[in-house]
């Protein structure tokens, strides 16, 4: 977790604690973290979209920016745990506490229990934050609550949580900061995964929830055929990137901003989770007989997988041409429902040959009826709850509800059905979600399989293993389910279906 040294106007230091900001003057890093939490609560904002702008506006860089980032993201991720602790420290129910005060208190608890900030600094900075943003009366209340928080360490707070909760799932959810319904969903999905070791379900579940709480490394994709070995070696030598574990295209950002790398600025590389790379590469690699030139990405926005698929298709077309096989009309149609996301797709594929990629606005549900039997490969990277990417979206777990599942599952089924219709006999559909929730993964495939006899399930686990550069542990078919705690990727799900 981010640690902060003493000094500078930003105040509160690590461990022993530096001088805090003068009374009434709020530490700018803490103010940024507070503003992020408020934007998330008040405007449904995404922390990862709001934070960079706030850091730039306030001129925060280096350690101060790192501190603000860890404070905001860590607090958002662990909010449920901190609320359970605050409920034990407050004389008032949390629902009656001013939302701004509650956010400041959550930040305070994270400093005490989740970061190595000295207790007295965490208390006084929280009080200053509340005084400046809410008022003196609320500051006295915040002071009293924070003093209670500092009277026990993390282990003691866990013991007290256990005393108050008899439900094991609730307790695990409080301890590891996940809503109970998500804990149950993850347990169900892990239990159905043939890669989960027998007798190891509880340990796997804890490992997964813990992995969701850790900040992930930034992973880059080097789009095949667009970045030379020499360029990658140079970036590695300069300490900008390091090889990642599993996908042949994946590199870990070694530090700094991705935009410092020229290939990222020009669209030949991009930021993309390694799991996303593996599922796209697996779809591109599975055998199809006959023509293999017309591909579609049914739900393309913001375009990460389109750019990877397009690069593979371009490279394959060039290789065939070099072998004297002219593949006429290679193209990838990248379609997306929302206009602004169509623009993001265009930006994402900017380094690919213009004639190869056709970026269109469409409703993927109608493509099957409008273009039946047209495509050799189709990716359905379906809109989903995103429960597999909780590491990257710190607030998502508290925003999502079980009520989101039913409409999403219906949409997912319609999109998959449409994709199968739009695929030619012998072609392949890749169904992908960045959620391991069974309702969005196996249940969608099962429902589609029940309703039609013209598809065959291929071994997606074998397809992922075949493109990976190292063993993908615990991957057993027919579906491929990746996990943050096993593979260091988002929890991507892939099913491969051949149209008969
Ligand atoms: C999970 S995201 C796709 C991510 C993308 N494949 C990537 O790798 O960058 C799902 C996308 O589907 C889009 N979408 C939602 N409903 C759709 C529909 N009916 N037709 C096409 N796209 C849709 C959403 O706007 C969203 O951009």
UniProtKB/TrEMBL annotation:
Recorded hits in InterPro entries, A to Z, give: MeTrfase_RsmB-F_NOP2_cat, MeTrfase_RsmB-F_NOP2_dom, NusB-like_sf, NusB_RsmB_TIM44, RCMT, SAM-dependent_MTases_sf
Q: Composition bias, kind Gly residues: at what positions?
A: 8-18
Give binding positions for S-adenosyl-L-methionine.
299-305, 336, 363, 381
Q: Which residues cross the membrane?
A: none
Asked if the record carries the keyword Transferase, the reply is yes
GO biological-process terms attached to the record: regulation of DNA-templated transcription; RNA methylation
Pfam families per the record?
Answer: Methyltr_RsmB-F, NusB
State the Gene Ontology terms under molecular function: RNA binding; RNA methyltransferase activity
Catalytic center at which residues? Answer: 434 (nucleophile)
Ranges where the SAM-dependent MTase RsmB/NOP-type domain occurs: 192-500
Alphabetic keyword roster: Methyltransferase, RNA-binding, S-adenosyl-L-methionine, Transferase
Region named Disordered: 1-24
Q: Which residue stretches, if any, does this entry annotate as coiled coil?
A: none
Q: Give the family this protein belongs to, as stated in its UniProt record.
A: Belongs to the class I-like SAM-binding methyltransferase superfamily. RsmB/NOP family.
Q: Know the name of this protein?
A: Ribosomal RNA small subunit methyltransferase B
Biological source species: Serinibacter arcticus
